[in-house]
């Protein structure tokens, strides 16, 4: 049985206007205030909403995060947002190396590692994403691809810091498809081994989140898998009720009378 507190992080991606924020966040906060969650909860809206979300949450039990940052602290990088700017807006976390950024913006492992360094410099908790494509899985390369991404994307500075890895199979993101629980267990074990290979003992403490089509129906089973330390949630984090159900699924099992969690 794993004892550590799980971490549930929502990734709104490029969704959300001020109006969505008040509805979703106020509903979530009301629920969490009524019955505090035992999981760590994070929510990563578009950069435009970070400060507003921080103000809405007002010290409540949800950390706000960014979805990316640049390596540099400031400078002539039109459109860029630095880790320091995220902190200035009130963020505490940042998602780095998401597969959408790796694919859309050609982000390499080396760049992700540098971004991790920037996040640590600014005092943010980095959530470093890795995951194989469908072609790589079908070629039997899932574990080796994830190992390579971990070795390349982590940063020496992570040892001893607060950070998390997120295993997100690319083919499971936004598709409604998920790996089997055995496949999740296999890759999470391989990920842990690679984290220790890269950082030594410094790779043992960080949580490994699973991401990719997590929803209220599958969250409890996925979160019970060995080495699954939480979830990174895309689509389902946009609906307060669904996100709350996933947060509740991360709590120590309260088994219902019929045995269904
Ligand atoms: P999804 O996205 O939950 O919508 O599949 C997960 C993610 O991309 O982090």
From TrEMBL:
Reaction catalysed by this chain?
A: L-erythrulose 1-phosphate = D-erythrulose 4-phosphate; D-glyceraldehyde 3-phosphate = dihydroxyacetone phosphate
From its record, what is one biological process in GO terms?
glycerol catabolic process
What range does the record give for the signal peptide? none
Q: In which pathway does it act?
A: Carbohydrate metabolism; erythritol degradation; Carbohydrate biosynthesis; gluconeogenesis; Carbohydrate degradation; glycolysis; D-glyceraldehyde 3-phosphate from glycerone phosphate: step 1/1
Subcellular location(s) per record: Cytoplasm
Similarity-based family: Belongs to the triosephosphate isomerase family.
Q: What is this protein called?
A: Triosephosphate isomerase
Organism in which the protein naturally occurs: Brevundimonas subvibrioides
Name the encoding gene, please.
Answer: tpiA
């Amino acid at each position: 049985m794993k004892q550590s507190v799980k971490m549930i992080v929502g990734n709104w991606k490029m969704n959300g206007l001020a109006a969505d924020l008040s509805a979703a966040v106020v509903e979530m906060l009301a629920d969490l205030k009524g019955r505090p969650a035992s999981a760590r909860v994070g929510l990563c809206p578009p950069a435009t909403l970070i400060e507003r979300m921080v103000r809405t949450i007002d010290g409540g039990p949800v950390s706000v995060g960014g979805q990316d940052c640049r390596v540099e602290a400031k400078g002539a990088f039109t459109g860029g947002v630095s880790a320091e700017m995220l902190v200035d807006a009130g963020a505490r976390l940042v998602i780095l190396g998401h597969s959408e950024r790796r694919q859309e913006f050609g982000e390499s492992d080396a760049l992700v590692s540098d971004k991790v360094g920037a996040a640590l410099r600014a005092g943010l908790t980095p959530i470093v994403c890795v995951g194989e494509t469908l072609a790589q899985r079908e070629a039997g390369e899932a574990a080796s691809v994830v190992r390579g991404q971990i070795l390349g994307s982590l940063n020496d500075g992570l040892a001893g810091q607060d950070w998390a890895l997120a295993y997100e199979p690319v083919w499971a993101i936004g598709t409604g498809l998920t790996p089997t629980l055995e496949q999740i267990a296999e890759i999470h074990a391989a990920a842990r081994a690679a984290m220790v290979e890269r950082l030594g003992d410094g790779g043992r403490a960080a949580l490994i989140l699973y991401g990719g089509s997590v929803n209220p129906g599958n969250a409890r089973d996925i979160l019970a898998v060995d080495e699954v330390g939480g979830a990174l949630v895309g689509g389902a984090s946009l609906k307060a009720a669904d996100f709350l159900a996933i947060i509740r699924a991360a709590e120590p099992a309260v088994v219902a009378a019929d045995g269904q969690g």
